[in-house]
Amino acid sequence: MLSNKIARKIYIRGIVQGVGFRPFVYEQAVSNHLFGWVRNSSAGVEIEVNGTPGAVDALLDALQHRLPPLARIDSLHIVEISPNNYTDFQIITSQPKPGDFIPISPDICTCPDCLQELFDPTNRRYRYPFINCTNCGPRFTIIEDIPYDRPKTTMKAFSLCPECESEYRDPLDRRFHAQPTACSKCGPHLSFVVKGKEIAIKEDALQLARKWLKEGKIIAVKGLGGYHLACDASNEDSVMSMRKRKKRSDKPFALMAFNSKIVSSICEVSPVEKELLESRQRPVVLLRTKNNITIAPSVAPGLNTLGIMLPYTPLHYLLLEPEEGFPDLFVMTSGNMSEEPIAYQDEDGFSRLQPIADAFLNHNRPIHMRVDDSVVKEERNAIYPIRRSRGYAPDAITLSKSIPQILATGALLKNTYCLTREKYAFISHHIGDLENYETYRSFRDGIKHYQNLFRITPEAVVCDLHPDYLSTRYANQFACEHELPILQVQHHYAHMVSVMAENHLPEDEPVIGFCFDGTGYGTDGAIWGGEVLIGDCFSFTRHTHLAYNPLPGGDAGILHPSRIALAYLWKAGLDWLPDLPPYLSTTIEDKNTLLAQLEHNLNTPLTSSMGRLFDAVSALIGIKEEVNYEGQAAILLETIANTEEDVYYPLPHNNGIWDVNSLVKSVLEDLLSGINQSVISARFHNSIVQATREISKAIRLEQGIHTIVLSGGVWQNSFLFRKTISALETDGFTVFTNHKVPTNDGGISLGQAWIAAHQEVSKNLS
Fold it and tell me: How far apart are CA 294 and CA 238, in angstroms?
């Protein structure tokens, strides 16, 4: 009898594959006496149910309020159909549909259930380093194609044993269609390799790695998205050896601890920071250190913060398992030589990391897509991404409306690319600096992979305005090969609009954009970076900027803040006094060359960069005269700032230009008067806050704009960020920032795509 039955066809899109969604639907349907089926498709999940109205409503309620941990529904479409004669409820075969796509879950840390099994001696997966289920484990790094089924992952080479097969086929089991599922009988295993020779496997390999780490050795550990280089973080000799071999002089290393209790013993950890540490994404979290900690000084030279993460794979848990006399904290840095992309394939890993690692803790589960660790910090009780990668990518940013399929190729440094489809912006994992072939190849191959996974055929291409960026060259080549329109977007405009896109701000309402960073190609051919823009998604104007100053040596000169400081003094008409820090740190030959460059305008491009101003002040007061990683001088300048100081230097504004000369003179006067470095640093920071505040009020008076966005790498400075927002909100402004993508150049591609969607290049696209 069907008279009291109804039937519905339900189409669901979102993160609904590989996350236990079909077993969840099956369980809900059976418990509510519904009949029909559920299946995966290339577009998501489809359900057909027959039953009483109350039972169907119960299923719909569960879909809205009681999803599996990793599932997310982005759209749910219900169609009324005629009841039929189904007599049970089944999970039926997946149905690929050409052209359809679904969002894909990022890789997720080991869930509590799997963790309990990992350390349970009675469980058959006891101490198995690759334990996972539908609620956790590898996803993006092993997927080769969709629908997300085992034959389309790197697990296809491992045939399930009878016990695993039984779990995999049981709709009520936690491992039902968990594509990476396996056990010690049928799945991947560990090996310990020294000088190309395998000397131990499985548990013996793990224990040998722990022994070597305890003894101060450096181990290359193959993880989820590539190799890490690990050593005891309390052993100064080991850490210094890592630095020398890796050719990484000062840039801080990431650390890993077994649990947040250990982290709290060395760092200040707020409730929000603890939540970030323990989140399923398991990013590296930047935390302020406590005093008198037992960490090797060379882990993070000169800094009062550490980047720490918790284990996110069962292998990491086993490797760091606490034991009497075993170290609490380990360096766990990307497996690469400095400035190269992370190694992820076995042969590549062995060849590139052999000069660094004493041994390899390897495994035989292939990695399809390399993915580095994400880096975040807490700002104003919320997440503030520095590097968006493992755990977050390729989860899409949801847009406020559907847009054409667009490829945005991003910036040169901290590159990400973006591909759009409908309301989704698929921002790539962190690619890195496009300054060598290996990174460029990773960028190029990644774009192809995203196109394939999300079934995207770009209708337009958008890139940076800089003609020499590799990302720009690729965009031009791609557009030419596919006969597509191309749009070049000014760097800081893309920064500004990235904030508008992720915060769903109205596309046609102007905002004030404070875009402060190190380098961006301007519409006038100069190097911008201290910009106040006014605009919307359709256009912008440059309202105010820092006065142009010469940058000796161009991009190469960024490594020499002392020369930048001397150039700023020269531009301000100030003498190079012989006892000034930048004078003392520069050779006579270099000073003579620099003076000739400045006087004859030789290789000294003009810049309005806020980042370079920070570098100049840092060098001028003797904080850092030479750097070996990006932003080092500015980071150290922030580190020493006196947070109690409220005085600021004037930064006069006239005809759209901030007078940098006046600011430099004020800094120099305080320095020569014997004012403490920490006070000068704070006053300098305060001057940027006050200048931002004053120009905001002037623009509001002129144009009635109350909405402000902050974007650009300089806003990673917590001292500046917090004080500026507090001041602007006190003045009645509404302030928006990046919080889903990095405020540095890792967020540029989102802004590029959103601009392209609103400008001439895509007006006639479908």
Answer: 14
Parallel, antiparallel or unpaired: strands 267-268 and 359-363: unpaired
Nearest residue to 408 via CA among 400, 419, 398: 419
Q: Which of 185, 250, 246 is CA-nearest to residue 218?
A: 246
If you average pLDDT over every residue of the chain, what do you get? 95
With residue 376 as reference, give the H or E element that holds it: strand 375-379
Q: How many CB atoms lie within 10 A of CB 11?
A: 15
- Three state DSSP letters for 605-620: CEECCHHHHHHHHHHH
* The pLDDT value given to residue 337: 84
| Cα→Cα distances 431→385, 491, 711, 745, Å | 15, 18, 20, 11
Q: Which is higher by pLDDT, 507 or 145?
A: 507
432 φψ region: left (φ > 0), alpha (ψ -120 to 50), beta (else): left
User: Both tokens of residue 731?
Assistant: 């003045």
Per the model's pLDDT, the better-predicted residue between 256 and 340 turns out to be 256
Computed on alpha carbons and rounded to an integer, the radius of gyration of the chain in Å comes to 28
Of 591, 587, 588, residue with least CA distance to 566: 591
**Separation CA 473–CA 440 (nearest Å):** 11
pLDDT band at residue 360, thresholds of 50, 70 and 90? Answer: very high
Give yes or no: residues 311 and 418 share one domain. Answer: no
Q: Are residues 614 and 724 in the same domain?
A: yes
Question: Looking at residue 692, which CATH number applies to its domain?
Answer: 3.30.420.40
Span 489-511, average pLDDT: 98
Residue 1 binned pLDDT confidence (cut-offs 50, 70, 90):
very low
pLDDT in tens, 253-305: 999 999 999 999 999 999 999 999 999 999 999 999 998 888 999 999 999 99
Q: What whole-number percentage of the chain has pLDDT above 90?
A: 91
CA torsion sign, 431 to 435 to 438 to 444? Answer: positive
In this structure, the number of other CB atoms found within 10 A of the CB of residue 304 comes to 13
* Proportion of the chain in helix, strand, coil states, percent, rounded to 5: 35, 25, 40
- Tell the residue number behind the tokens 């940076």, with chain if given: 464
Helix (H, G, I), strand (E, B) or coil at 637: helix
Spatial separation of the C-alpha atoms in residues 17 and 13, rounded to whole Å:
10
Q: How far apart are CA 411 and CA 749, in angstroms?
A: 7
The reply to whether 460 and 581 lie within a common domain is: no
pLDDT band at 3 (very low <50, low <70, confident <90, very high): low
- Per residue in 576-595, pLDDT (tens digit) is 999 999 999 999 999 999 99
Phi, psi values for residue 112, rounded to 5°: -60, -40
* Residue 755, domain member (yes or no): yes
Residues 532 and 417 in one domain: no
Residue with tokens 């850490």: 239
How many C-beta atoms surround the C-beta of residue 393 within 10 A?
25
Alpha-carbon span 290 to 740, nearest angstrom: 29
Residue 586 and residue 732 in one domain: yes
SS3 271: helix
**Among 40, 70, 91, which residue terminates a domain?**
91
CB 203 within 8 A of CB 318: no
To the nearest 10°, report the CA torsion of 196, 202, 206, 212.
Answer: -30
Residue 19 near residue 105 (C-beta atoms within 8 A): yes
For residue 377, what are the β-bridge partners? Answer: 384
At residue 17, the pLDDT reads: 83
Residue 18 confidence (pLDDT): 77
- Express as a percent the part of the chain with pLDDT over 70: 99
- List, in sequence order, the alpha helices (H) in 610-659: 610-620, 632-639
Please state, as a whole number, how many other Cβ atoms lie within 10 Å of the Cβ of residue 188.
19
Burial-class residue 433 by CB neighbours within 10 Å (0-12, 13-18, 19+).
Answer: middle
Average pLDDT over residues 660-665: 97
* 60: containing domain: 6-91
Give the DSSP letter of residue 714: G
In a domain, 570, yes or no: yes
